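Thread: sanity check for a docking pose with MTE

Original post by kr_44:
Hi all, I'm comparing my docking run against an independent structure prediction. Below are the sequence and the ligand SMILES. Could someone generate the full complex and paste the structure tokens? I mainly care about where the ligand ends up relative to the chain.
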Amino acid sequence: MNARTSTRRRVPPQRWARLPLGALNGLLAGCAALAVAELVSAVVRPQAGPVIAVGGAAIDRTPAPLKDFAIRHFGENDKLVLQLGILATLAALAAVLGLIALRHRRAGALGVLLFGVVGAAAALSRPDAAGIADALPSVVGAVAGAGTLYWLTVRLTTPTGRSTAPRPGAPEAGDREAGWDRRGFLVAATTTAVASAGAGALGRYVKGAGGQGAVASRDAVKLPVPASPAAPVPAGAALRVPGISPFTTSNGSFYRVDTALFVPKVDATGWRLRIHGKGVSRPLTLTFQDLLGRELIERDVTLTCVSNEVGGPYVGNARWIGVRLADVLRQAGVEPPSRGGPADQLVARSVDAMTLGSPVEVVMEGRDAMLAVGMNGRPLPFDHGFPVRMVVPGLYGYVSACKWIKDIELTTFDAYDPYWARRGWAQQGPVKTESRIDTPKPFARPKPGRVMVAGVAWAQHRGIDRVEVRIDDGPWNPADLAAQDTTDTWRQWSYPWEAAPGGHTLWVRATDGAGRTQTGDRVQTIPDGATGWHSVVVGVH
Ligand SMILES: Nc1nc2c(c(=O)[nH]1)N[C@H]1C(S)=C(S)[C@@H](COP(=O)(O)O)O[C@H]1N2
Ligand SMILES: [Mo]
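Reply from moderator J.T.:
Ran it for you. Here is the predicted complex with MTE included:
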């Protein structure tokens, strides 16, 4: 009877157990591959890691409508969602490879290597790829993963082979002789898991240490007193209405929109800005110290994203300190088109190879376009472009607000399409007049009686002259405007509403300093910004 049981156990693990264990092998091999890739990328270049590289390639190839959808629905978590999606896909495919390997070990391992090829190709094709070394994380990771899968599969599918001849007398002889080595497999799988976790953690640690120079260089920045300070924000610019957007958006709550899966950590001490191109008679290279040593201006400017839907969150107002871009351009010999300059487009390039194109005329014509080094009294946060970014009042971010800037090239709109223009967005992006109801919130249930309706309106560089509120299909009523800081900032407004019981729709529209009233026509964000009136539905009870 002992013989019977051991015969059954002899099949290296039973079929039902093999499948999940095979899939587990695939997952473990995938973890090993990613962990090793993480470690290698920490040494080579963080951005060259396979998930970042494939994710970046995916972002660049995502059609504009889908990208817009992602920004709208996942908001600033869009990148997290993308990375989780990549990891989930990889996990599923790794599990399949683990199953394939049960029958064809080599094919399984080869499959893992193929993923390495995809990762390496993605890394090498990134616009900011630094060279052939960028392929290393994917390649080394894949080799580690393929080896791991092969090894684990052997553990799972081969009888122990410790002895082919039965050892009579030993109680578990039957188990030992041809059964699979359960303990051996468990040890192998655990070792893989622990080693992967260790390698991954070490990679993370090395990456963190790699950014220390940048962090130290930021900590060391002492923003000089600007030669041209901003006037204090007028006392009446900030209304005391609960729920309204604060007049100045703090650095921590400022919206973030960019394509960077890995936020560039630039060491300011090695940073350079090059200015060159068409009509640049005196090409310039500036250091961070050069910028700090120049005449600085301080301005309140509201920044808006072209992907902001009507009523959306991608708008914020900050106090920026920087160098007037026109001054730097003039020093480089640049003339605006109206003075006969040959270049009508200024293309800003970032360290992560983003390109943004602004009209030279707008940048030089007298508005406070700047190379910003400070945001709300602090050096720029890394998320917002440390050490230097562009800010141009009145232009959407995608045509002006280059973060982590390193290069400015003067060219023409005919000669060059920057990143977003190549993806279906308009070459020119002046901010459209917009207004937003911040309070009450959608589907709020206020009590009948006086309810404060309040929010913000913006039309950078034109200013806001009037805001009106409409209840249901009633007439447009003038809202009370807060004091205007500058025409480059948004303006708060409020409207005391005598709310009657029942469901109501609240509407808002603004009129800018040029006398133009916001259109009620709804258009989507692509190609040059959404239009339409923001509305909020509430139930008064
Ligand atoms: N390097 C870089 N700069 C960039 C972007 C980017 O993707 N990469 N996005 C632009 C867009 S679309 C906007 S709206 C603003 C947003 O700036 P913020 O993230 O500081 O709010 O940055 C701009 N500058
Ligand atoms: Mo944007």
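The pocket of MTE (ligand 1) is lined by residues 254-260, 303, 305, 350, 352, 354, 384, 397-398, 401-404 (CB under 6 Å). Hope that helps with the comparison, let us know if your pose agrees.
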